[in-house]
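[Q] Does anyone have a clean structure-token version of this?
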Amino acid sequence: MTGRPFTAAACKAGPCRARRLELLPRLATVVRERPHGVLLRTDCLMQTRRCRPGAAHDSGGFLLIQPCNQQRQPRGAAIAVGPVLTTTDAAAVAHWLTGGSFDARQLDASLRPGSPPAPGNVDAAPRAWRISDECG
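[A] Here you go.
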């Protein structure tokens, strides 16, 4: 179990909305067990075509993980995670957070944006992320 601080920002908008029911409870459990974990829900994280109002598909939920120090200052780039399509995906993300390495290469390739797109994910592309200058 990690004591490494982090902020997990989970999208609650557009096509992410349906999948948050599976993802958020698992994330909340992991965050509660960490002395320096923070979970927040936010509007759209991706700002892509899949996120536009009226999107008729559910291509999974997305989140960003920002490793921080204990003073909530970012340490490294934020890590984009998703799409989370199933309860198995949600469990894998929770397990990865519990390990605390924050190494995206330890996530299944299907959970790393920029990997080959999942069916229905029309806009998967690698991006550099940073939640803010002050983590959390």
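[Q] Thanks! Anything notable?
[A] DSSP finds two helices and four strands in the chain.
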